[in-house]
């Protein structure tokens, strides 16, 4: 086991920049999730840690020691490739046993058999051991690839979207299984995903990557409640956070507040924020934090309100998703049917949100969050 | 109603008839082409079975004899006095030798060209390719001057060396595309499993390009075996190959076309046997199942 640290990693392939500036630290024995859209540089980051991609700049450190000159074979990391990268000429058993039969990690054959059976049982592929990998479904191949990682102890596990090709039910159970394995073994794990639910549920810490840069690193709670930028805020949660553009205005009663362009939302600026009058900002909140009230309802204490008209309602089981149109922007509100009450399309409504749940961002899609 | 139905049936019937006619014409056409392209071979077989009197006739009626084969192979009294077996052995040694040397150099070269980027890679690859499309006559004059001087004239080593011009580009270029088709992540997985680069290559990559190696070796062997210009100019007797050696039956005071035919047919046996025995390796798709599809 080891801690993994990346310092200022940059990597280009020809003219395309894969990584512009990637730095983060994964503490020894912790589970780190790397989240980002496709093309953000997640896989390149993993391969850099493994030594399979040589960074143009920056250093990779294991336990504080620069491993730049260490060959992949000797880094003692195990990686689950997004493409699986199984050995097609071998059956499942030999694929799983491959690390334990290599010169570097060789174990007695009896132990190999025992370990392979254990891992295969955990992953639910023990009935496939004698099959060629070509005869497996994508979901089964993906589990073989994951098994080849888990079969041997390593300083770090690097998992590149290891659950994407499993069906929803299996994915949920494998996610729980992985969490359990990670906690038991205490192996440092870097887990790449584009699924925010996986990141939030598995990661002790999460790094958000976009266009080759780390936008934010933090605990799931920090990422959720204090997203660094609009990008991070919108990368987590479904439906995603909606933003209302507006500006800072002077309060005749003293101080300043935010008013959206329609003029219907007035929200206090975050504590300690010093923003000049006239600055363009955008306000956002999570759909689950909002409630829908009647058009003339009084705004509860400590809440901000915005008025609009219901454009669409969607019933999803006990949940209801309401889209409220505010001056051309659709605001999503999600909640229990009982809590949101009966709203019909076309109704005039007031959407209320606790003032503390409203986040303010600078202008633009990469706008940084204002406030502590 | 019935009118329309019968109308439809008639149309359907003509459609079937037309398709059947098409099939018949295709078959006839293929048979004609088959006869056309195989006729020279048939003629050679007939010629090889004729005796000296009949060899220039075009009759199909003659009493077949295996005398030509006996003469060529030097069996019994019929010996034609030409060391055909030695030519045959020379051909085998030089062709197989050339292919083996090319594989030894070409497999790593193809792998390097497929996997790594290095300065001048494409120029090097193009130079190699140019050996294939430049006529052999371009190099033959300097070689025929140099070879006697450095003692390579009429030697196996010299022939194997010069045949690299034929076999190496083929092997490098074809195997390169086989290596490029393989996902580099398979080797990367092997590296992380704890295998060295060499072991990863031998254990995971090489088995997957086996069909490619089989196919290209066969092709290279055939090209080397059939080569005429190099043995003609760079050998005299010791390393003379069958392609050139078969012609010795035509020289002298009388042309023995029936012997030449027999010699050529015997010379066609090794490539044929090799092609048939290697056939089962000539299937692609061994890498199926390794990566996501």
TrEMBL record, chain A:
GO (cellular component) term, any one: ATP-binding cassette (ABC) transporter complex, substrate-binding subunit-containing
GO molecular function per UniProt: ABC-type transporter activity; ATP binding; ATP hydrolysis activity
Gene3D superfamilies named among the record's database cross-references: 2.40.50.100, Nucleic acid-binding proteins (2.40.50.140), P-loop containing nucleotide triphosphate hydrolases (3.40.50.300)
Record-linked Pfam families: ABC_tran
SMART domains: AAA
Leader peptide range in chain numbering: none
Keywords in alphabetical order: ATP-binding, Cell membrane, Membrane, Nucleotide-binding, Sugar transport, Translocase, Transport
Residue stretches making up the ABC transporter domain: 4-236
InterPro entries, A to Z: AAA+_ATPase, ABC_transporter-like_ATP-bd, ABC_transpr_MalK/UgpC-like, Mo/tungstate-bd_C_term_dom, NA-bd_OB-fold, P-loop_NTPase
PANTHER family associated with the record: MALTODEXTRIN IMPORT ATP-BINDING PROTEIN MSMX, TREHALOSE IMPORT ATP-BINDING PROTEIN SUGC
Protein name as annotated: ABC-type sugar transport system, ATPase component
UniProtKB/TrEMBL annotation, chain B:
Membrane-topology descriptor: Multi-pass membrane protein
UniProt keywords, alphabetically: Cell membrane, Membrane, Sugar transport, Transmembrane, Transmembrane helix, Transport
Superkingdom of this protein's organism: Bacteria
Chain ranges of the ABC transmembrane type-1 domain: 88-278
Subcellular compartments: Cell membrane
GO cellular component, as recorded: plasma membrane
GO biological process, one term: transmembrane transport
InterPro entries, A to Z: BP-dep_ABC_trans_perm, MetI-like, MetI-like_sf
Ranges that cross the membrane: 24-46, 87-112, 124-147, 159-179, 200-225, 257-278
Coiled-coil portions: none
Location (main, coarse): membrane
Family in the record: Belongs to the binding-protein-dependent transport system permease family.
Name the UniProt record assigns to this protein: Multiple sugar transport system permease protein
Gene source species: Goodfellowiella coeruleoviolacea
